[in-house]
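Appendix C. Worked example: Regulatory protein RecX
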Amino acid sequence: MLGQPSGGESSPRDDAIRLLARREYSRHELVERLVAKGHEDEAITDCIDALAEQGLQSDTRFAESFLRSRILRGQGPLKIRLDLERRGLDRELIRHAFDEAAQRGEGDWFALARDALARRFSGPGDTPRERARRERFLAGRGFDFDQVRHALETAWTSDA
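Step 2, the predicted output written as structure tokens:
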């Protein structure tokens, strides 16, 4: 096959392109995947630098795509931020992605919490235990205290 070293092994670039063809990856994720495939550290660094220069890998684009997909899943900002940090993105880049989403009108966290709660539960719950279950559901999704409180107050009202 063209572009592959002799012996049938693929190059870091070949493997990286195959991964990026499926979805966006952060630089950190791509390094982890290529290391797991047994590529040398220097070759990986050179490869990813070249891919970034060519616009084929972008942490900014990854952050925006990841944020958008998690919003569509009904996840809150705390969980999304933590997941982005785990994928090797710095806080400034994460903040920028959240700011860009807000400018596009994405990420109304209060409405998202309310909608997620209303989809999951048919009502606010009759007992403290049931209400606590709803709170845990939203907290586990990554919503903060104010967003959880708002959702519990408005999820089943007709004017929400």
